[in-house]
Amino acid sequence: MDELLLTLPIIQPQAAAPAAPAKPRKPDWLRVKLPVGPEYAKVRRLVDEHKLHTICESGNCPNMGECWGAGTATFMILGNICTRSCSFCAVATGRPTEYDTDEPRRVAEAIQLMSVKHAVITSVNRDELKDRGASIWHETVVLIKQLSPTTTIETLIPDVKANWAALDTMISGGQEVVSHNIETVGSLYRLVRPQGKYDRSLEQIRRTKDAGKRTKSGIMLGLGETQDEMYQAMDDLVANGLDILTLGQYLQPTKRHLEVAEFIHPDLFAHYREEGLRRGLKYVESGPLVRSSYHAERHVNVPI
């Protein structure tokens, strides 16, 4: 036994590999409850029965339980495949195959069945369509108003790539709020929205305001922006006629998407809300779990 031990090689301990930089841990204030309850189940059933897409599901929204539990949802028209490949978004990217001219009727009937008081409609980008899907947008809003005349509507519209005729069609159906999210500060556009342009989105908001609409936009925090860049973005939005701004924490939807650079403390969200109001915005919804449609029913009362 001793001889055997003497013939074994001496193994030197290997130096430990350098530790990878620690990723920021998700704080307690970002934990949400799973969706439950009869109202949530009702909305779930109607969405399935009418073969509707919701950004609540496609975008992995953390407020789906709260909003659906209150009997509301944000519907996504024009399919669930987007022509853009934004590095923050959970919606599938590819070549869309869906163009359903009956979709406006189905969405309007579902909203009527659900007795929705305030509906939010959004869509994927459809850059391959000559009118960017504007005719479907317009008909959807018109039919909702016909079937549910007391329902107020917000339309969260995509970047029309400077097709201003398409924009005019999209925003002329009678909706009370027109939203277009700039998503992040100007310096991060190539990283976050590689097919978007900061100045073009600002111009889209300006043209919407010039058309007499109540304007709204949203920014995700925690992607690496500085406080000074946030102040500049607010000033740019005010200068281009924005009325309502939503600010929320970016959450990485999958490992293939951008990592979170920082989890923003609720106190800083509160500070940004006060700064936004001080800089001329009429309404700021700001908090870690805020998303574009969060408390959207409150925004229809913001004066134009």
From TrEMBL:
Cofactor(s) needed: [4Fe-4S] cluster
Binding of [4Fe-4S] cluster 2, residues: 82, 86, 89
Pathway: Protein modification; protein lipoylation via endogenous pathway; protein N(6)-(lipoyl)lysine from octanoyl-[acyl-carrier-protein]: step 2/2
Alphabetized SMART domains for the sequence: Elp3
Swiss-Prot/TrEMBL catalytic activity: [[Fe-S] cluster scaffold protein carrying a second [4Fe-4S](2+) cluster] + N(6)-octanoyl-L-lysyl-[protein] + 2 oxidized [2Fe-2S]-[ferredoxin] + 2 S-adenosyl-L-methionine + 4 H(+) = [[Fe-S] cluster scaffold protein] + N(6)-[(R)-dihydrolipoyl]-L-lysyl-[protein] + 4 Fe(3+) + 2 hydrogen sulfide + 2 5'-deoxyadenosine + 2 L-methionine + 2 reduced [2Fe-2S]-[ferredoxin]
Pfam family, one: LIAS_N
Annotated signal sequence range: none
Positions annotated to bind [4Fe-4S] cluster 1: 56, 61, 67, 293
Superkingdom of the source species: Bacteria
Root EC class: transferase
Annotated EC: 2.8.1.8
Compartments where located: Cytoplasm
Location, primary (coarse class): cytoplasm
Cofactor binding summary note: Binds 2 [4Fe-4S] clusters per subunit. One cluster is coordinated with 3 cysteines and an exchangeable S-adenosyl-L-methionine.
InterPro entries: Aldolase_TIM, Elp3/MiaA/NifB-like_rSAM, LIAS_N, Lipoyl_synth, rSAM, rSAM_sf
Keyword terms, alphabetized: 4Fe-4S, Cytoplasm, Iron, Iron-sulfur, Metal-binding, S-adenosyl-L-methionine, Transferase
Domain Radical SAM core, first and last residues per copy: 68-282
Family: Belongs to the radical SAM superfamily. Lipoyl synthase family.
Protein name: Lipoyl synthase
Gene: lipA
